[in-house]
Amino acid sequence: MTKIKDSVVLVTGGSRGIGKALVEELYARGAAKVYATARDRRSITHSDAIPLALEVTDPDSVAAAAAHAPDVTIVINNAGATTGASFLDSPIADIRREFDINFFGALHVNRAFAPVLEKNGGGHILTIHSVLSWIAIPGADAYGASKAALWSQTNALRLALAPRGIGVTGLHVGYVDTEMTAGVDAPKTAPSSVAVQALDGIENDAFEVLADELTQQVKAGLGADPAALYSQLARQ
């Protein structure tokens, strides 16, 4: 089992929201060192965290981060973004941008740090997905598709990395009270709660963590007819 105490952790997107809460919870649990990344390292405000500049869409930036953090034993893929792109009306560049950040960004990080984790005796990767990995909502076409692809990446890497002593956890969340959901009028989970559940998942070697009731409901309904998940289809 992976232990947070005395671990060395890389958190992408560690300057705010869930990422900031993760850095705080990691130190509360006794992590020895936390590399917190952001495009602008000056945005990292935790006094103990080691700020690390990282652009996840740039393979050279990711390789440089791996070279600067050779002692990492846990990787948390938190960096993500949404443009609100729709498949029918938005520029293809906006859709591609979401995949570049949400899917390929995590892939760059995983490919760069898997050898680091293995060299350090094994470790753990946790990747933050979304309830939108499993259900589509208007205004989040590209975001949901990129997170669905990321879910598939996590499932594939779990199989590929297990023989190398690296566990892989996927964390799925609904609405979290961050800047990204500021305009959403719906129940939201506190970032601190997500951080607690994420680190519990790592320490329990969980394959998946479903961080709120909405996510649990949607996952439970995946085997049903699409009309059960999409009420608008049932009316047609």
UniProtKB/TrEMBL annotation:
Residue stretches making up the Ketoreductase domain: 7-166
Q: Record keywords: Oxidoreductase included?
A: yes
Output this protein's name: Short-chain dehydrogenase
Classification via Gene3D superfamilies = NAD(P)-binding Rossmann-like Domain
Which SMART domains does the protein's record reference? Answer: PKS_KR (SM00822)
Q: Does the keyword Iron apply?
A: no
Pfam families on file? adh_short
At the top level, the lineage of the source is Bacteria
* Record keywords: Oxidoreductase
Tell me which family the UniProt entry assigns to this protein: Belongs to the short-chain dehydrogenases/reductases (SDR) family.
Q: Which organism is it from?
A: Nocardia rhizosphaerihabitans
Q: Which InterPro entries match?
A: KR_dom, NAD(P)-bd_dom_sf, SDR_fam
